[in-house]
TrEMBL record:
SUPFAM superfamilies: NAD(P)-binding Rossmann-fold domains
Swiss-Prot/TrEMBL keywords: Oxidoreductase
Ubl conjugation found in the keyword field: no
All copies of domain NmrA-like, residue ranges: 2-245
Name recorded for this polypeptide: SDR family oxidoreductase
Pfam families for this protein: NmrA
GO molecular function (one): NAD(P)H dehydrogenase (quinone) activity
CDD domains the UniProt entry points to: TMR_SDR_a (cd05269)
Coiled-coil regions, chain positions: none
Length: 282
């Protein structure tokens, strides 16, 4: 039995879609915070169990009978360590045999502030004694393309990444790797540094948006403080804005670059190109 946390989030459904190609629906358990959102999963024959990252007891119940767990990291930055500890403690209590965890690219040496909670979680996994694999995911292309509509409207794509190279891939790309690792045997003890085959800068992203849309779009590099202020100005919560600005500065220092092509080797196919992703969003 394989359980997936965050199964109705942004990554989980892609993982399940891939997993269903090799694993019967009857062997998949979707763990969700709100079961009302999981109707489509039930219709596919997948068991749905409700548990919140903040509730260790609920997770202990949800993980009964589970052999392998894909722990998709919580989206609540600043609360992840506590929440992940709840899930790992529950996995120990439920005698889960293997955990795959979605960490951060080069977590142990990353300049991104986001790395702290991922490193803490990796240590918890090591201390748990449960065999595990680390899926150190790079940036999702969608993280940047969420800003494309505003860039097309105003003719400016703003950021604080300078000319830092970003080896991004789509959520679907990372999900294919996660499905393989959780659906097969033999991945315990592995640390996978996962990133896109192609690296690009925000200037190149702006140029691609301009090329495909026919509109004038240029990249404007800001300081970390100014970029964070701009994000807050359009309504982003302060914590999220600060995290995104910090991550951009981390990217300028090489934090989102990796040329190992581990992701495409693991999935057996090339990652989605920036041009394809821009085409899809347009």
């Amino acid at each position: 039995m394989i359980a997936i946390t965050g199964a109705t989030g942004q990554l989980g459904p892609h993982v399940i879609e891939n997993l269903l190609k090799t694993v019967p629906a009857s062997q998949i358990v979707a763990i969700v915070r709100n079961a009302a959102k999981a109707t489509a999963l039930r219709q596919q024959g997948i068991t749905v169990r409700e548990a919140d990252y903040n509730n260790e007891a609920a997770f202990t119940t949800a993980l009964q009978g589970i052999d392998k767990l894909l722990l998709i990291s919580s989206s609540e930055v600043g609360q992840r360590s506590t929440q992940h500890r709840n899930v790992i403690n529950a996995a120990m209590a439920a005698d889960v045999k293997f955990i795959a965890y979605t960490s951060l690219l080069h977590a142990d040496s990353s300049p991104l502030g986001l790395h702290v909670e991922h490193v803490e979680t990796e240590k918890m996994l090591a201390d748990s004694g449960i065999p595990h694999a680390l899926l150190r995911n790079g940036w999702y292309t969608e993280n940047y393309l969420a800003s494309a509509p505003a860039a097309l409207e105003h003719g400016v794509f703003i950021g604080a990444a300078g000319e830092g190279k970003i080896s991004s891939a789509t959520r679907a790309d990372y999900a294919a790797a996660a499905a393989r690792v959780i659906g097969e045997e033999g991945h315990a003890g592995q640390v996978y540094e996962l990133a896109g085959d192609e690296a690009w800068t925000l200037s190149q992203l702006a140029a691609e948006l301009a090329k495909q849309s026919g509109k004038n779009v240029v990249y404007q590099n800001l300081s970390e403080a100014d970029f964070a202020a701009a994000l807050k100005g359009v309504g982003l919560p302060a914590g999220l804005a600060d995290m995104l600005a910090d991550s951009d500065v981390g990217a300028s220092n090489g934090g989102l670059f990796d040329d190992s092509k581990t992701l495409s080797k693991l999935t057996g196919r090339s990652t989605t190109t920036l041009a394809e992703s821009v085409k899809n969003i347009l």
